[in-house]
Q: What sequence folds into this?
């Protein structure tokens, strides 16, 4: 049985990733920081559709429980893959952001994924093949004004994955980043309708991405036959900001 842990499984893109991977035969750990009810409900729905697979909601708060990372990882059943779909941002000028907010964005988006990767590596490389996929952003390639810290963390994931992939390539563990452009998710609810329409008009494909546009590429990178693709950042942007 192939099993993946999806961090941030209750987010807009995270939910789409879980649905796509479940349909592809994966058993899932559905991680959430706080939304236990949402993770449990999603697991129950998937279990009804795919009764031969396992779907286990699991709660872990990256900030308040950070000192327990090792214990958390050691409690897991063997996994073939890890997908880091969590991410937060704060839309404002840097000078108006509190140091605590800056540190929180860096911790959730970059530091904790790297630390979890270190802890998961011994588990992953025991498998016949294993995969790591981070959810990056088009802003990791071209930084966004008013999201400078967020942009830095997503750029950091790309450079980290590029370097780390070279360290573990001989173990059949691949490490890649899927970097979406503008996606129709609750994370973009902070922007007014007019702003989102303006963004949409700038996208050559003529629309915002849907969650399934992103989850498809995660599925491809987790496939057993994707073993020669590692250290890459794949931009899924509809041609926007390239």
A:
């Amino acid at each position: 049985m192939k099993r993946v842990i999806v961090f941030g499984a209750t987010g807009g893109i995270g939910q789409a990733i879980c649905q796509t991977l479940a349909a592809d035969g994966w058993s899932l750990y559905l991680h959430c920081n706080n939304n236990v009810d949402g993770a449990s409900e999603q697991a129950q729905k998937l279990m009804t559709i795919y009764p031969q697979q396992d779907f286990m909601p699991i709660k872990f708060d990256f900030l308040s429980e950070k000192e327990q990372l090792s214990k958390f990882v050691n409690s897991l059943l063997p996994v073939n893959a890890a997908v880091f779909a969590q991410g937060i941002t704060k839309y404002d000028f840097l000078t108006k952001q509190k140091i605590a907010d800056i540190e929180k964005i860096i911790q959730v988006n970059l530091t904790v994924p790297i630390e979890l990767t270190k802890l998961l590596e011994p588990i992953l490389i025991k498998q016949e093949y294993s995969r790591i996929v981070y959810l990056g952003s088009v802003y990791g390639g071209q930084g966004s004004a008013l999201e400078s810290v967020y942009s830095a963390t997503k750029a950091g994931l790309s450079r980290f994955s590029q370097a780390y992939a070279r360290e573990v390539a001989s173990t059949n563990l691949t490490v890649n980043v899927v970097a979406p452009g503008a996606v129709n998710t609750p994370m973009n609810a902070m922007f007014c309708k007019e702003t989102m329409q303006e963004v949409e008009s700038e996208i050559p494909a003529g629309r915002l991405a849907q969650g399934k546009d992103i989850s498809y590429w995660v599925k491809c990178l987790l496939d057993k036959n994707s073993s020669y693709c590692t250290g890459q950042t794949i931009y899924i942007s509809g041609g926007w900001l390239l």
About this structure: The chain has a mean pLDDT of 93. Strands lie at 3-7, 27-32, 55-59, 81-84, 130-135, 173-180, 233-236.
